Amino acid sequence: MSFFSKLLKNILIILIFLEILSSCGIYKYSDAKKNPTNVHERQKKNLEEGKGFRLSDINKRSGDFQFATSNPLWKAGLDILSFAPLSNVDYAGGVIVTDWFSDLEKNEQIKITVRFLSNEIRADGIDIIIHKKICNEVNNCKTNKVESNLNSEIKLAILKKAAQIKTSDLKKKGKERGEIKLPVN
Fold first, then answer.
1. C-alpha dihedral, 148 to 149 to 153 to 156, nearest 10°
2. Domain boundaries in the chain?
3. Cα distance between residue 82 and residue 120, in whole Å
4. Whole-angstrom distance, CA of residue 81 vs CA of residue 83
5. Distance CA 145, CA 135 (A)
6. pTM of the predicted structure, to 2 decimals
């Protein structure tokens, strides 16, 4: 192969690579009419859209923790699963995972994972995953995902408890605020 053919081949590879990168969405078209011309306004817009950061904010704690302990769905999930040992409880990620546990059977254990998909108390805002592990005497274990009535029973129990917690929280807030009197015209 001659020098020019190698050079041509390398240039072709680089051009193909650049074309692939440009089509992957790295470069996005931006309309100049929609972007502020003032530096401070543009900086504020970029920070609001999550396109930048400030060095002064590095040590500050930030984030929107939607699954905080004041969330009734979260409280209900912890309350319903209080019978089992918990291995991972991450309210920022919206996950509660129990450790493997067994009630009666020595060689059968289950693990329950609750994923919160929404802050709202609704059936599609929560996902229950149950795994069953069966071990024989030689510690040869098989783990399978279980789809049974237990999934829906746990989901229903969490949703009912969350509704009760939300109702009691609203009653407490109402008592704290006192009676609200509307002006009569």
1. 90
2. 72-175
3. 22
4. 5
5. 15
6. 0.57
